[in-house]
Amino acid sequence: MAETFTFGTSLASITCHAWNKDRTQIALSPNNHEIHIYSRDGNDWKLADVLNQHDLRVMGIDWAKNTNRIVSCAADRNAYVWTQGEDGKWKPTLVLLRINRAATCVKWSPAENKFAVGSGARLISVCYFESENDWWVSKHIKKPIRSTVTSLDWHPNNVLLVAGSTDYKVRVFSAFIKDVEEAPTPTPWGNRKPLGQLMAEFKNSLTSGGGWINNVSFSSDGNKVCWVGHDSCVSIADATNGNTVIRLRTGYLPFLSCEWVSPNSVVVAGYSCVPLLYSLTADNKLVLSGKLDKSQKRESSGITAMRIFQSMDRNMRTENTDTVVDSIHQNAITSVRIYAGDKSSASKVSTSGVDGQLVIWTVEQGGINGGMRNLQI
Amino acid sequence: MRTTSGRTTAWTAPQSGPDETEITTLLTQGKVVEALLSALQNAPLRCKNQIVKDHALNITLRVLLSIKSTQIDQAIDTVDQNDLIDVLMKYIYRGFEIPSEGSSGHLLQWHEKAFAKGGVGCIVRVLSDTNRA
């Protein structure tokens, strides 16, 4: 059963969201320069704090669960690390990203001692805390990125970084910072470790252009990378299998977000407004193994003026022609986060999107067989 | 998609496009589905020469328009088995750009049936792909 929430009275889109460790608080941006922190109170959400430091739209938020720090980045080219004071209020620290275009995405590394920021400046800033100067500094990964970095994800070893870009390519880099960490052990992606070393590069499509990469994700063991692009495809590359790419051309609108929920299945969501579960079969095929949104066609439950205007707002229409989409999300889903469990075994995921709703879904695990039950032929 | 046919269209496809004489022969023999497959498999999608592309378009359109409405379903099934629905969709859309007598109506039937098979993703890939038909 899916739980749906809206925050405050606004129906603004949720640009991105992030959870704290015990999932009692959520940080989200209502599609402007602010970050709102809500605390859960039963079925209600109470506004706990407004993080108001960015000048332009917030593009990415990530919450380091163990060190309880929030990092945010925005179109104003800045990133802030927020720490909670004793009064419960969040205090920002500016990070020197040294970029001349908007920052687009941000992710804490698993050890939470560094984070990476992707940007329109065709580079990735890998940031870490320099205790000598009491300051967050960054090092750049530039080559061979040729366009905006849209998404990032860290390998569980805290060193490798995967980046998706609008140049239709997915790249795995080393983001090793020798000042703050020990040399990593080799992985199937390779041994070379200096910062910026390109470990692997995948085109979205070998046979055609393939469109922008919208999101990337490392699997729980770090040996596979999943990505979704603007050509409605889901792709998985496997480093233990000679970097072969398994690509599935789906019949849906493009996906904007993907997340692993078990060692061989991913949840993807996007412009189709429904989160879908894709799984790798034993013979290395990618198949649709379930739909998280099981809503059927809706019965009309009385039309009120309020409902009509809400629906127009959610779908960003100016004319009132028709009404509701037959799914829980009423507009594109822009982000998927794990709510319960982790990448190796997630039982719940949360999605947020352009309709301003946050939905928490139950993922039916139990491998392929569990998922197959929902498969509709 | 790493299938044999996908590979054929992309890597070994002659940049000169489909073989007109072969397709004409197939058409006169009434082997319309084979003609369509041949046209789509040899589509010069990565070719940069617009004349070659236009020539391929004309041939493919001729094949599409010579397949009767009753044969479309069978043709689409074969095209789908060979993983060429996306290529077919590209030509359907390109075909709308240069209408001739009755062509658009026929192409709409093609579109309806290709859409039923490939879903909306197939249309998205026509829009997002940089290799145009």
UniProtKB/TrEMBL annotation, chain A:
Localization, UniProt: Cytoplasm, Cytoskeleton; Nucleus
Family: Belongs to the WD repeat ARPC1 family.
Protein name as catalogued: Actin-related protein 2/3 complex subunit
One Gene Ontology term from the biological process aspect of the record: Arp2/3 complex-mediated actin nucleation
Job description of the protein: Functions as component of the Arp2/3 complex which is involved in regulation of actin polymerization and together with an activating nucleation-promoting factor (NPF) mediates the formation of branched actin networks.
Entry-linked Pfam families: WD40
PROSITE patterns for this protein: WD_REPEATS_2
Transmembrane segments: none
Keyword Repeat applies: yes
Stored InterPro entries: ARPC1, WD40/YVTN_repeat-like_dom_sf, WD40_repeat_dom_sf, WD40_rpt
Domain of life per record: Eukaryota
WD repeats: 51-82
Example GO molecular function: actin filament binding
Key words, A-Z: Actin-binding, Cytoplasm, Cytoskeleton, Nucleus, Repeat, WD repeat
GO cellular component assignments: Arp2/3 protein complex; cytosol; nuclear lamina
Species name: Drosophila persimilis
UniProtKB/TrEMBL annotation, chain B:
Keyword Cytoplasm: yes
Ranges for region Disordered: 1-20
Assigned GO CC terms: Arp2/3 protein complex; lamellipodium
Polar residues composition-biased segments: 1-15
UniProt cross-references to SUPFAM superfamilies, sorted A to Z: Arp2/3 complex 16 kDa subunit ARPC5
InterPro entries: ARPC5, ARPC5_sf
Chief localisation class: cytoplasm
Ranges in a coiled coil: none
UniProt cross-references to Gene3D superfamilies, sorted A to Z: Actin-related protein 2/3 complex subunit 5
UniProtKB keywords: Cytoplasm, Cytoskeleton
Family to which the UniProt record says this protein belongs: Belongs to the ARPC5 family.
Protein name per UniProt: Actin-related protein 2/3 complex subunit 5
Origin organism lineage: Eukaryota, Metazoa, Ecdysozoa, Arthropoda, Hexapoda
